[in-house]
Structures are given as C-alpha cells and as structure tokens.
Amino acid sequence: xxxxSLILFLSLLGLVSEGQSHGSVVPxxxxxxxxxxxxxxxxxxxxxxxxxxxxxxxxxxxxxETIFVMEYTYGDLGEVPVDFRVIKxxxxxxxxxxxxxxxxxxxxxxxxxxxxYRFPDKQPDVxxxxxxxxxxxNYLGIVTARHPDxxxxxxxVFPFEVGYIGYGYIPLFILLAFFVQGGYWWMNRExxxxxxxxxx
Length: 200
Description:
Layout: H1 3-19, E1 25-28, E2 31-36, E3 39-46, H2 48-51, E4 55-56, E5 64-72, E6 82-88, H3 99-103, H4 107-113, E7 114-121, E8 126-133, E9 137-146, E10 153-162, H5 170-195
Helix pairs in contact: 1-5
C-alpha cells in the first residue's frame, strides 16, 4: 500500500472515531459523560414507550416521550442551579454546532426555536426532565450551570437527531474498504506489468 493511501486511510479512520461523539457528550467506557465546564455527569436518554429500558447518548430512534437524565458524578453539580433547554437546530451547523453557534442566535430566534426549557433549579444527585417530541429532525441540547461563588456560567451544547434511522458510519467503512482494496489491486497490477517489462 502506498504511503499516501495509508495516511488517507488512517485520517478517515480518525475522523470516524471523532465523529462518533460530538458536542459536550462523550463516551467513556459503557457510560456517556456530559461535560459542563469543569462539572460532569453521567448522561442517558430514555424512550420508555417505544424502547423500554434502552438508553441512548444522543441520537434517538423515535419521536414521542423522551426522558433526559443526568446522574452527577460528584456532589457539586447537585448544589448549583442547572437549566436545560432543547431547541430545533436553526444554526445550520448540524452535528458540528457549538456554543458560539447558539450564542450567535438572537434571543427572539432562540425562544422561537425552543421546544423544551426548564428554569435553573437545584436537583441533588439526579437531574431528570422529559419531553414529548412530536417531530423528527435535528435538535440541540443546551445545559447551563452557574458557579455559586463566582457566578460564572458553564454551558454544554450537544447536537442530536430524533427519528434517527441512518446507517451511521457503515457506508463510510464500506467505501473505505473498497478504496484500500482497489489501491492494493492497482499496485499489484502495476508491479506485475513492470516485472514483465510492459509499461502500464
């Protein structure tokens, strides 16, 4: 395999690995962790009417009743006011949406796009909020915690899709496999032609 092909393969593989988590929710072992500044919590989403006890990190297969749960990894987050907002993704950034994209929205646009909001409150140990999604599509979750001493705000933004029925990264892996195999066949063909003294 040529060096350039190997580099491209490894780059795409890295892109796929990075793309499997986005925003402020990251997988750690069998758990999903939401990072809100220096605060963190175990993060799970349930759709009990359609998926029973199955939990998700971000993308959801169905519309309908959905429960977002944060289990605090240590007590500090349970002692600060936390607010939770879900908006339709009107940033145009999709899975690449970040805090600055949300901050670029006017307050009017933010309110118009909001489908779920809970005012800041303290919930020791476990934070749970539910919503009935009536439409599939792309959404952004926005979680904010205010430090009790400095009054500084920490915000997590995580893009997710409701009604997600895609094939994930399987097509990319298939395309990658064809590319690598095709390169291998081509190089072998060139080598055989050169061995026979024929220019390809």
